[in-house]
Amino acid sequence: xxxxxxxxxxxxxxxxxxxxLNPGLARTGQSTCALLPPLAADFAHDSIIxxxxxxxxxxxLVVKVGTSTLTAGxxxxxxxxxxEIAQQIVxxxxxxxxxxxxxxxxxxxxxxxxxxEKRNGRLPLPEKQMLAAVGQTHLMALxxxxxxxxxxxxxxxxxxxxxLSDRRRYLNARDTLRAxxxxxxxxxxxxxxxVTTEEIRVGxxxxxxxxxxxxxxxxxLLILSDIDGLFTADPRKDKRATLIGEVREIxxxxxxxxxxxxxxLGVGGMSTKIQAAELVTRAGASMIVAxxxxxxxxxxxxxxxxVGTRFLPVVTQIESRKxxxxxxxxxxxxxxxxxxxxxxKSGKSLLPVGVKTVVGEFERGEFVAVRDAQxxxxxxxxxxxxARDASRIAGKRSDQIEKILGYNYAxxxxxxDDLVVL
Length: 422
Fold this sequence. Notes:
Blueprint: H1 15-21, H2 32-35, E1 48-49, E2 60-65, H3 67-71, H4 79-94, E3 98-103, H5 106-114, H6 125-148, E4 154-159, H7 161-165, H8 167-182, E5 186-191, H9 205-216, E6 220-225, E7 243-244, E8 246-247, H10 252-256, H11 270-282, E9 286-291, H12 297-302, E10 309-311, H13 317-327, E11 332-336, H14 338-345, E12 355-360, E13 367-371, E14 377-382, H15 387-393, H16 401-405, E15 419-421
Parallel strand pairs: 1-7, 2-3, 2-6, 3-5, 4-5, 6-9, 8-10, 11-13
Antiparallel strand pairs: 9-10, 11-12, 13-14, 14-15
């Protein structure tokens, strides 16, 4: 078994604790970024189809770490690898990037915790879920311990497909993740494997990380794996295989290049990464698949340096969101006063005080039209309140919501991010 991680008595960073995992991190009095080795410039293949598109500034980043990366090719979690990833994430945060981490490895952590070796063949679902249940707490404890060395607070978020397909639960998940980030806490996300059934499983963390990227309207999804990116052929079988630096469009030719996972420790191969890329790029974000063992891979990615394979967005995030909202049927309407209509046109949210009437029956998270006093539709968006609740707070100030309803989802009926002005 892997030796236990040294205990941590405080969340403050200490040189001794970091050095116990990585002797190169023993220096003190410097920022986390200063402790990192020089950015890698020579970790690439001799043959690369180059990237030519400039990388825009990254404000929100989702990092997905696969089981093969966390175990470094073994059957147990590799603490040093986890520390290297954590240090890069801390450095990215110091540069002002909001980061969410999607972490695989619960089953590997469960095996480690129980002293079990990986067996050949497929495990029964109850045994998989048992390992995930045992391992998830162990995995989170390790992440909390490691990030605590840098005084970074973490939050565990376990999701299922149902959380992201039902509109109300989707809104709750999004609001929770945004609140975590707004409080400078690092969300660590995984699928709730211990309780999910086939009907509500996302199925793999590549697709889960893509859904999280879209929930957060993140700029970039970085998938760290045991592969360097997408190749023109399988590099383990064909020495002439060339790493593709940039993919502008995912077509049948690109899908045909997808292969499987090398280690078999996780459920995601290149095919699931292509699926994730389609989800992300259609929503207006970029995605990079890169080798998790590459030094400073996260910082290279956000810095625009060539790393792995980058999948380019096919639309802007604004265009994608606008198409989505406009394509949905509205369930009701808010009739707004002239002041509220002017505010919407200047990019503001729709507040209860600006609503005169609520029309129709709808639930929180449904699509609702906004009409002016003449009945013309001036906007539409996703409501934070049901028709029943909205009727009770219409015309009232936002600071009165909790007193009237007994709870407060948000100070607005429709947030500007969830609204399209027509």
